[in-house]
Amino acid sequence: MKIDHIENEIDELGDAHASSSAENPLREDAFNLSDTEKIALITEDVKHILDTLGMDLTDDSIKGTPLRVAKMFVKEIFSGLDPQRKPKASTFENKYKYGEMLVEKNITIYSTCEHHLLPIVGKAHVAYISKGSVIGLSKMNRIVDYYAKRPQVQERMTMQIVQELQKALGTPDVACVIDAKHLCVNSRGIRDIESSTVTSEFGGAFKDAGVKREFLDYIKLDTTF
Length: 225
Fold this sequence. Notes:
Blueprint: H1 2-13, H2 35-52, H3 65-77, E1 91-93, E2 101-113, E3 119-129, E4 133-135, H4 137-148, E5 151-152, H5 154-169, E6 174-182, H6 183-186, E7 197-202, H7 209-218
Parallel strand pairs: 2-5
Antiparallel strand pairs: 1-4, 2-3, 3-6, 6-7
Helix pairs in contact: 2-3, 4-5
């Protein structure tokens, strides 16, 4: 049966974070439908899933679940797929001539593993060294959130954050480290609740061992209020 063949392929892949490219795999017609149309279609799909599982969709507790899930998918947890929602990465001239690295650490990440559609929860630490331009601090958080809000692979997300900031700032000197828990590992399969996944991307000056070490030392600092 065809389903058996697919299952065998998936079993061979395992939980590997395989990805075909640094871009999310989207079809050319991905945005032909409006959000309203997508929500309507996904609502019916979720109804079908719950019905197949044997759930009673007339029960007060879950009769609204299909619509809630559909709206959540389109408007919230997968909203970063839509390029129209991409934050404007406004930059400014570095008039005060700050020449050291700037580090924005402990940026909260809520993403979704594209292999099991389960949460990825963690922290991103991002840094850059100005080549004449600076970016608003909140914009760094928004860029991280934009690339997190989609079915993701952590390695790809790390690269996308760095590449977006390099483009906005006009410098290769950008770095990102992400430390996150994957519920596809923590809550199913091996069910290892303690493990987390760390990924990194170092560009330009951050490839130098001394600069890299300085960045990694900064993100170890304990910031409490």
